[in-house]
Amino acid sequence: MVRKIIHIDMDAFYASIEQRDNPDYRGKPVAVGYPEARGVVAAASYEARRYGVRSAMASTTALKRCPHLIFVPPHFDVYHAVSDQIRQIFLDYTDLVEPLSLDEAFLDVTENKKGNPSATIIAREIKQRIKEETGLTASAGVSFNKFLAKIASDYRKPDGLFVVRPQAAEKFVETLQVEQFFGVGKVTAEKMHKHGIRTGADLKKCSEAVLVDLFGKAGHQYYLNARGLDYREVEPERITKSVSAESTFDHDKDSVLHLQLELYQVALEVMKRMEKEQFFGRTVTVKIKFADFKIITRSRTLPEVVKNFQQLWSAAKTILRNTDLGGQKVRLLGLGISNAGETVGRKSIQLQLDLF
């Protein structure tokens, strides 16, 4: 059976909600976050993106690129309420919904509550309902697996709808840049480039053994994806077990002060993801990769769950301060939160296709 999968991705979700709720922000460059020296952009409107403003960018950098940028503090209670409203729309079509975050989800509509054989028509209906019921726009990707559906949803943003049909999948993947592959970040892309892999076509030329040797377990998935394949099923009740983020430096660092500043930025990103996932744990873990690629981790379990940035930063800073670096230079810092205890992780859901 050919699956029918839809990936729905809200357009500039946080910033679009702020513009919806405040007419003065409409048509103007808006960033959700704080303009302080150590602040970070949580989300940027499309007007701000035209100036090169992006999420996870330092607020000072964002202001340099767009001096008239409007900073708006986040309203996570509103974002969660709107996300729940959108989730109810999804559930009108299928119970197989896998949320990846507040603003995106997979839906398996191979068999759906509407009895509609066309995943494309369902995706179009969902987009229209989201617009009518929330005043927001969403982009949709339709295909026969999750990998392709997710790429498709980003293909014609904002307010886009793109379909990758089974017969066109391999040729479509061959044209992609490796940066467009889900799970290929900046560091992995650079490593691929060093080995002459820049497009899906280049990736397809590599044997599975070579890819596993270069990228570990992820190499298996890259091998399949290069052929337009992805056998992962939609998981409607995936439970978040941890939240993390990391940063690889342009130049190795050995200054404790510089490392603290870098860790502070990573902690801000982790806190943003914790809020997004509504996941709060007790164990804080710092990951350190040295210039020689040796990796160490140091953890601290707190008596209560971490629910605000000050708790997270205090624990992370203490762990770093108590870690003997042995005078070595550091190329990467990571930070994670786990061990939810009585805190229940967020649930997620997925999607599939049949007739396009």
Automatic annotation (TrEMBL):
Catalytic reactions on record: DNA(n) + a 2'-deoxyribonucleoside 5'-triphosphate = DNA(n+1) + diphosphate
GO cellular component terms, A-Z: cytosol
Residues annotated as the enzyme's active site: E104
Alphabetized InterPro entries for the sequence: DNA/RNA_pol_sf, DNA_pol_Y-fam_lit_finger_sf, DNA_pol_Y-fam_little_finger, DNA_polymerase-Y, DNApol_IV, IMS_HHH_1, Rev_trsase/Diguanyl_cyclase, UmuC
One GO term (biological process): error-prone translesion synthesis
EC number in record: 2.7.7.7
Textual note on the cofactor: Binds 2 magnesium ions per subunit.
Record site: Substrate discrimination: Y14
EC main group: transferase
PROSITE patterns: UMUC
Presence of the UniProt keyword Ribonucleoprotein in the record: no
Cofactor(s) recorded in Swiss-Prot or TrEMBL: Mg(2+)
Ranges for domain UmuC: 5-185
UniProt cross-references to SUPFAM superfamilies, sorted A to Z: DNA/RNA polymerases, Lesion bypass DNA polymerase (Y-family), little finger domain
Compartment list: Cytoplasm
A Gene Ontology molecular function term of the record: damaged DNA binding
Nucleotidyltransferase keyword on record: yes
Binding annotation for Mg(2+): D9, D103
Annotated keywords: Cytoplasm, DNA damage, DNA repair, DNA replication, DNA-binding, DNA-directed DNA polymerase, Magnesium, Metal-binding, Mutator protein, Nucleotidyltransferase, Transferase
Family: Belongs to the DNA polymerase type-Y family.
Protein role: Poorly processive, error-prone DNA polymerase involved in untargeted mutagenesis. Copies undamaged DNA at stalled replication forks, which arise in vivo from mismatched or misaligned primer ends. These misaligned primers can be extended by PolIV. Exhibits no 3'-5' exonuclease (proofreading) activity. May be involved in translesional synthesis, in conjunction with the beta clamp from PolIII.
Subunit: Monomer.
Name used for this protein in its record: DNA polymerase IV
Taxonomic source organism: Paludibacter jiangxiensis
Taxonomic classification: Bacteria, Pseudomonadati, Bacteroidota, Bacteroidia, Bacteroidales
